[in-house]
Task: inverse folding
């Protein structure tokens, strides 16, 4: 079992950058497919980015493609989300998630496929 703790959220001006961190404990993140989701008030949780367990393949929501980058540091047992050119619509609580489930095409976009979640970190973008 893995425990996930997010950090790095905060208030940033539109056009600015933030780097979110997801520190894992209990097991190494290389055992998991990892992802970031977000949820804004009144909205459903939505997929942001994922990183596959073996090949390290990355996937992004169209809304963040070209602006956000997901990465992992196995030595630090941490997953990152670098967010550049932030927009007001990026404001949300961002959650880190991990899965050991068998990958099927498109699984990584579905929050229900993930077994473990962090508590979330708030990102606020001022216009």
Result:
């Amino acid at each position: 079992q893995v425990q996930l703790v997010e950090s790095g959220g905060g208030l940033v001006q539109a056009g600015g950058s933030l780097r979110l961190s997801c520190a894992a404990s209990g097991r190494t993140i290389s055992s998991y497919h990892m992802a970031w989701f977000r949820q804004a008030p009144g909205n459903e949780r939505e997929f942001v980015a994922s990183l596959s367990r073996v090949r390290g393949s990355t996937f992004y929501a169209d809304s963040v493609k070209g602006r956000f980058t997901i990465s992992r540091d196995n030595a630090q047992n941490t997953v990152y989300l670098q967010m550049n050119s932030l927009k007001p619509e990026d404001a949300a609580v961002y959650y880190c998630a991990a899965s050991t489930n068998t990958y099927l095409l498109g699984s990584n976009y579905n929050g229900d496929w993930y077994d473990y979640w962090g508590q979330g970190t708030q990102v606020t973008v001022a216009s």
About this structure: The mean pLDDT is 95.
